[in-house]
Amino acid sequence: MQETNLKSSAVILAFTAALMFGVSGAIASDALADISPARAAQSRSIVAVIALLPYAWYRGKLADRAPWPLLILFGASLTAVNVAYYEAVDRIGVGPGMTLQFLAPIMVLVWMRTAERTAILRSAWIAAAVALVGTGLIAEVWQGSEMNLFGVAAGLVAAATFAAYLIIGERLGKTMAPSGIMAYGFAISAVMWGFLQPVWSFPTDLPAKVWGELVWMGLVGTAIPFMLELQALRRLSAGFVGVIATAEPVIGAAAAWILFSQSMASIQLLGMVLIVASVASVQRRGVAEVEVPLDAGR
Questions:
Q1: Quick one: which of 82, 87, 276, 280 could link to 37 by a disulfide (CB 3.0–4.6 Å)?
Q2: Cβ atoms 23, 255 nearer than 8 A
Q3: What is the C-alpha to C-alpha distance for residues 286 and 280, in angstroms, rounded to an integer?
Q4: Rounded CA separation 156/174 (Å)
Q5: Which residues of 36-72 are buried (b: 16+ CB within 10 A; e: fewer)?
Q6: What is the largest CA-CA distance in the chain?
C-alpha cells in the first residue's frame, strides 16, 4: 500500500513538473516579443542558479567531487540548448519548437548505437522513423521557401544540444548528485552568458510584465520543476518519468492557444502527435536497453 502511494505521488510530481515546463514554454513565447532569445536564455540561467545553488548547498551536494571539464561541457550544453529552444519557440511557435526539442531521446539512441555500440530494439528505430516523419509535418517541408527554415534548424539544434547534455549528465551522475550537477551547470552557464552578453548591458526598460515572465521562466519554468522531477525519479524509473514528460509539448501548445491565441495547422498537430508518441514509445518500451537519464537534467 505504501509503495503504491509513493508511486502515485511520484506520478503527480512528474506531471506537475511537465505542466510547469509546458506552461512556461507558452509564457516564454510571450516574453520573446520584447526580449531576444539569447537574453531570455541568460535570464533563465541566472534565476535558476539563484534558486538551485542554495538548495544544493543546503542538501550538502556541492561538496561532491566535481569533474570540472565535464561540468564545463555540461554548462555549455545548457547555454546552447536554452538559446536554441527559445529561437525555435520564437520563430515557429510553442508546440512545434518544444516538440522538436523532444527529438533528443531519439538522437541519444543514435549516439548509443554508433559511439557506444549498444544494441537497440528494432521498435526504437521504427519510433525514430515515425518521429522523423513528424518533424517533416511540423516543418511543413512541402512548402519550400515558405517554411521557417531557421526556426526548424533552431529546434533541431535544441534537440542535439539537449541530447548532448543528457549524455554528459549521465556521466556526471556517476559521481555527483543531480541537484549538484544542475546547480553547477546553471552557474557555469550564467558565467558563460556573462562573457557573451555582459549583465550590465541587459535591457532594463522592459515592461513589468516581461520582468515577471523572466522570473517565472527561471523559477517556475526551471528550478522548481527540476526539483519535482528529481523527487519523482527517486520513486519511479526514468522510463516512466520520460513518458510523463512527453506531455510537455502538448501542454505548451494548449497553454499558448489559451493564453495567447497561438494556433497551428492540423498537419502540424499531427506531426506533434507522431513525435510525442514516438518518444513515449522509446522511453517506455526500451527502458532496459535505452534509458535516457532525465534525472541528470533537461
A1: 87
A2: yes
A3: 10
A4: 28
A5: ebbbbbbbbbbbbbbbbbebbeeeebbebeeeeebbb
A6: 58
Cell of 226: 527540476
In the chain, what is the straight-line distance between the N-terminal and C-terminal CA atoms, in Å? Answer: 32
**pTM above threshold 0.90:** no
Could you give the count of Cα atoms lying within 13 Å of 70 in the half-sphere of its Cβ? 18
Residues 145 and 24: their CA atoms lie apart, in Å, by 30
Q: List, as one string, the DSSP characters of 152-197.
A: HHHHHHHHHHHHHHHHHHHHHTTTS-HHHHHHHHHHHHHHHHHHHS
Q: What DSSP state is assigned to residue 146?
A: G
CA-to-CA distance for 22 and 98, rounded, in angstroms?
Answer: 8
pLDDT tens across 26-67, in order? 999 999 999 999 999 999 999 999 999 999 999 888 876 778
Distance (Å, rounded) from C-alpha 70 to C-alpha 20?
A: 28
Per-residue pLDDT tens over the stretch 144-190: 555 678 888 999 999 999 888 888 887 887 788 888 888 999 999 99
The b-or-e profile of 128-155 (16+ CB within 10 A means b, else e) is: bebbeebbebbbbeeeeeeebeebbbbb
